[in-house]
Design brief:
This protein is an alpha+beta fold. It has seven helices and 18 strands. The strands form two sheets. Strands 1, 2, 3, 4, 5, 6, 7, 8, 9, 10, 11 and 12 form a twelve-stranded mixed beta sheet that branches.
Amino acid sequence: MNLKRQLFVASLLMLLIPWAGLQFVLELDDALRQQARQQLQEQAVRLADVAGDALVGLDPVAPGQPAIYVKSLTGTLNLDGYGDDWPGYEEDGGRSEWQGQATPDADQPTLQWQAATDERHLYLLIRVNQREPVFFNPGLPDQPYDRLTLWLRPPSGNLGAESGQAWRLQTPAPGQFYGLSATSGAPDYRVSGVWQGAGSGWQVELKLPAPPERSRLGFRAEWGDSPDEAVATVTDPLPVLVRRQPIIERRLAPRLGSGQQVRLIEPAGWVIATQRGDPGETGVAFDTLTPLQVIEQISLNALRALIRFYQPEPAALATGIDRLAPESLPDQGLVRHDDGSVWLLTTRPVFGNRTLILEQSIDELLTLSGSTLGSVIARSTLIIVALTLVLLGYASWLSWRITRLERAVGASIDEDGRITGTVPPSRANDELGQLQRQFSLMVDRLQGYNRYLESFSRRLSHELKTPVAVVRSSLENLHHCQSDQERRQYLDRAALATDRLSQILNGMSEAARLEQSLDHA
């Protein structure tokens, strides 16, 4: 493994810093959830007391009791016989929040309805499907025609249709009309409406004064002369009108914190109060963020995803609906809304066997616990990436210097081991610069030593040529000598040359032994 890879592997150890930060965030999130659960339970007790005081005197709606849920309007309704301005209207012209009852025979007409209020008036949208309307003919009043009968009873009145007020709704043509008293037949201008055709049937949009709390309302669509020719008679007993309680909502609103929401439901599951705390800090526009803030937001989102991955699986809880089954609600724990957000939930019983549901957004908790730490992790990640790049660049620079030194040393010596060049000295003052200067000095010394060895062989051959030539010439002349004196003379010369050779060889041996003794010393 080269130096670059070694430094890269070593730099990966710095990833332990964000990993340790993640473990800390997970522990902090668990501790905050435990603390938030305890605080939610304490807060739910206080909110239940506040709601219970406001509910004194308001009868609860028991499970199985007939009821018509009255939605609260945020604007005004245009009384035109169409439902495009009603809550729950869909873009394709359909409705998603009809209340209705179908007849046993699928080929028979069906009745659907919806109620709403603006605190001053009660609005009704009643629709009959699979029935072409037959309008009232003033010239032939005995001829069968389509009509609606409406009953309204005070909260303390009889549960049936025998007491209270009743109106008959009929019209000679589509358009606006007024209700007629069911007893006297006189017009009651407090009850007005518009009759329009709708698809394969017809629908009526009504407006009447807002009745007292827990009043009862019933209606019946009829045609023909026989009372049996009616569809979905909503009269036995008269359903109670259930609506949200603005007084309770106003009392609960200032007691909610950021990222909290509360709902109050009847024993039958109808939502009679819902309120949400002020949202926390809203996100800034993306184009106003600096690159560092963009990376911090990405890190925070990744941190939230990791925390959600390690969190317990939340239970599904429907939102945006008017009725919840109390028996299906968890006492406490994590729940997931329809939009995918995760909430911490706790419940508390309220006066009249009602239930208060208090929720805290997990994202708000994570924002409190993770925004600063997310920024720290993001910046530490940036530092780690920058340090890794710096280390890789530094390793590449060191690797390039070592490779250059290797090539310079390799180019200074040929395949036969001869010094053919020099290593250029380095100007750097670090260890690699010192190493290169030492290599340059070593190559220079080896080159001088090689030159000495080459010159030594020349000098040695020159020193050996003379005695060898004397010996050779003496031996050659010895063959031509005729007297003993001449032979003795040539033999003496050869002996002197041999002594000279012996002295040279002895000197070389002594020099070698001296060099070895110096090395040992």
